[in-house]
Amino acid sequence: MGVNPWDTLREMDESAPPPDQPRFSLRTARMEAFSDGVFAIAITLLVLELTVPPASVEGTLRAIWLEWPLYLAYVVSFASIGSAWLAHSTITEYLERADSVVLRLNLLLLLVVSLLPFPTRMLGEYVHELDAERVAVTIYGFNLLAIAAFTSILWHYAVAEHLVKTGSDDDDMRALTAKLTPSLGFYGLGIALGLLAPRVAVFLYLAIATFLLIPFRTIVRNVRRGGPG
User: Fold this and answer.
1) pLDDT at 7
2) What residue spans define the domains of the chain?
């Protein structure tokens, strides 16, 4: 008879060792592989939401232009998932091991990442109706906030529980923390702004994702060195 993985995880939780003994830990390879698969599927589902508008007598280009909200939503969501993947990749690069809490936090992060194609579609469909647009942008904002929150919680927990690799660069770790934390406040601002000016909030979400994607620290370091590295 095979081993039930849930029983294994339950035993891990219930048999916590005393503080003077090493904690049970897992290698992160399977968590990284599974996470990369979910990120890849979520970002692929976004493009499936794009539809080809029907050709019209007035012109195909105009028909395509009328679909701009859906294209904008795709770009914002792609950038948001991309920035979340980059942050997740950096976190797992620092991780030396994972415990059962890290695995569960990672699953919660993947839950909200895989959900993003749904509000993305809502955003593209409801943008022409103000009340429905506000609802769509609000749900979209909460989804992005949840992604940022679980990413930050995962990182802070790993640092607090000393799951990161020994000898990791403290400056780089502080830089990652500094980049993850402010995004929570900006997403909160975007949610509030979405109730008054939904389209402005969408562009704010795009700006946040772009900020998270740009490696400012690496650029500054290369400039100080006098060339690309």
Assistant:
1) 56
2) 26-225
